[in-house]
Amino acid sequence: MNVKSIERKGNETTIVVEIDKELMESGVQKAYMKARKNIMLPGFRKGKAPRKMIEAMYGAHVFYEDGLEEIFPEIYKAAVVDQDVKAVGRPNLTDMNISDEGIVTLTLTTEVYPEVTLGDYKGLEVEKEEASVSEEQVEAELDRMAQNVASTETVERAAEMGDTANIDFEGFDNGVPFDGGKGDNFDLKLGSGSFVPGFEEQVVGMSAGEEKDIDITFPEDYHKDLAGKAVVFHVKVNKVSVTNVPAKDDEFAKDVSEFDTLEALKNDIRAKAQEDLEKKINNAFEQACVEKAAENTTVDMPKALVEAELDNQMERFGYQLQMSGYSMDAYAKMMGGDMNTMRNAFRPAAEKQAKINVTLSKIAEIEAIEVSEEEINEELEAMAKQYNLELDKVKEMVPVEEVKASLQTRKAVKVIVDSAVAVAKKEETTDKE
């Protein structure tokens, strides 16, 4: 195989390569052997037609396109890999010439990895929040824990704010029931604001077995069919319940935790909340540092890199939907669009991430970041433990180069973050007239 010329213009490279007759013949023969089982010619049983007869009938080069596909790995190695062309995606065949002597000359075009010019990526000033857990947050968590162990008791009295009234109801607009206005055995927490304004207040004072009509006027910003309308709800109370929330004291702490005192429980809640908040803030800071470094990078991004990242993001999202029992098509229709709509919605994020990817790759190159065999093995062992698989199985499933690239990326992120300067987050201000 002879590479005749290589020409790069921007992110596209054109390669002209001449294929050896013997190599081309091997590809054509393989293509013929695969295709002949489905070919019928007069006088021959299906799958038994000679190659020369097929070529005489359909053209001498009928198997050439499929033949090129058969030898594509050899073509790619000689024309791309051996020429150190950093192709992005699969090259396209833009021209094929077959000489009288049977020599095939191909013109291939491929997008190539872009020229990346880094801007500032060290010593970046990036806003970072302070990790501070308030007493209100601690109390809110205690309230949640108390609600989890609260008991419910039916009472024989009129409903009060804070009670739960189990009700049947139906709404009428000028005596006619309207859609969505009916419910049976509905548990309504009085004072929760779950229903339209004025409804819950009129249930207060009703007892189990009592029925009455409630006059309600819907807000002007309500559903267009009912906005501003005066309607009547017929309501029946089935039962009234109270929720007994335990007092938050030392006995409560013993019941809901391993601690003997309420103060010890509060300290534990505060410490865990502080740890979670710091992790969240550090992750946000890291992401902001990386995004700022990418913003400082100059690169003419190949479409193929963006499309590849878009494919990855769509695949990950599809997996998340699958875990929730949805398909991509069903979700797209539910959101009023189709797969193209979803893909376009993901595109800005993919473009942003693709630029981050090339930035981190360039930093790894400039910083001469290396990954040892020991580090790769440690990563593979961690993956095996995470997914509860045998190490050998993980090694079969995950290419070493992918693991190496991932570790290099992490180290590149560390270069950015470790040198970054955290500055106080600016308070949002609003212009006053």
Overall average pLDDT = 92
Query: Strand-residue fraction?
Result: 15-25%
Question: What's the name of the CATH homologous superfamily of the largest domain?
Answer: Trigger factor, C-terminal domain
Shape: elongated
SS-based class: alpha+beta
Distance between the termini: 75 Å
CATH architecture of the largest domain: Orthogonal Bundle
Main CATH class of the largest domain: Mainly Alpha
Number of strands: 13
Residue share in helix: 40-55%
Describe the fold and architecture.
It is a single chain. The chain is of the alpha+beta class and 433 residues long. The protein has 3 domains: 2-113, 2-Layer Sandwich (Alpha-Beta Plaits), CATH 3.30.70; 151-244, Chitinase A, domain 3 (Roll); 271-424, Trigger factor, domain 2 (Orthogonal Bundle). Helix content is 45%, strand content 23%. The chain has helices at residues 21-35, 51-58, 64-70, 72-81, 135-148, 199-203, 250-256, 262-295, 303-323, 328-334, 339-366, 373-386, 391-397, 400-419, and strands at 2-9, 12-19, 87-98, 104-112, 116-117, 125-128, 151-155, 164-173, 176-189, 211-217, 230-244, 298-299, 421-424. Helix 12 (373-386) packs across helix 14 (400-419). The radius of gyration is 35 Å and the shape is elongated.
